[in-house]
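Bumping with the actual sequence this time:
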Amino acid sequence: MTARHPVCETLIRAYRRSSPTRRLGVPLTTHDVALEPFVASARFRLAGMAVHLYTASGTVLAFLMVIAAIDGDAIRALWISLVALIVDGTDGMLARRMRVKETIPSFDGARLDDIVDYITYVFAPVILLWTGNYLPGGLLGGTLAAFPLLASSYQFCRVDAKTDDHFFLGFPSYWNVVAFYVVVVGLSPTTTGTILVVCSALVFVPIKYIYPSRTRIFRTANLAFTAGWLVTYAVMLRQMPDPNPVVLWLSLGYLLYYIASSVYLTLNGAGRPPVGPSTRVPAASTGLGD
């Protein structure tokens, strides 16, 4: 007999405890569990609320980033941005693990995540660029700052901003990453303004960018390289104002990998359905969601 995956065993035990008929001793399959409504325990509901609170903490981090930017402390703002990146990179995994859509169905975690992402990835970084004089002064600088705010407002409202095969469609509003390199490298206001214009335009170009924690293609490499990039982020901040050139180039190498692999997968039809009869197993038959 093939051993079940530990997660499957956990779901089956939960099903037996929660089922009205309490099928103790009855052999169950993962398929049986998938067809039965999930009845959340108090522990699951508390865990779900904790996950949502963890996601919502990003709004507090964004507030602290803005305060640091107003205080003129760009490095402190970037450290806080790093914490926000880690929270955003892990909350989705925790939400799926705790099955929050089922345990707290009245709460829209995806909407909360979008709100937090817009504040931490778009609004706070633009404030940092503006208050730190990293943009041209006057009307030109204000206009350039408006580009990412408006472009990302559009992107966050697109129903296909995150594709079914787990890619970002169009430049994924990584303005926090842009702000990081502007500060660390010390880019001129003209160069910074040019980057804002180009990346704002790329929001509307249908390139499928890798979603590091969810895109299935190259997933192991994506996670490993992303983790390495976060390390270089912290190291360079620690070394400011003179980051090691080797660490900087390693960090930029990740960006080149990310862009090149995203373009490559887009041109090669990443996520296209296979030709011929579909062999995809319906999600309901796994009981594990996505």
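The tokens above came from a reply further down the thread. The longest strand covers residues 167-169.
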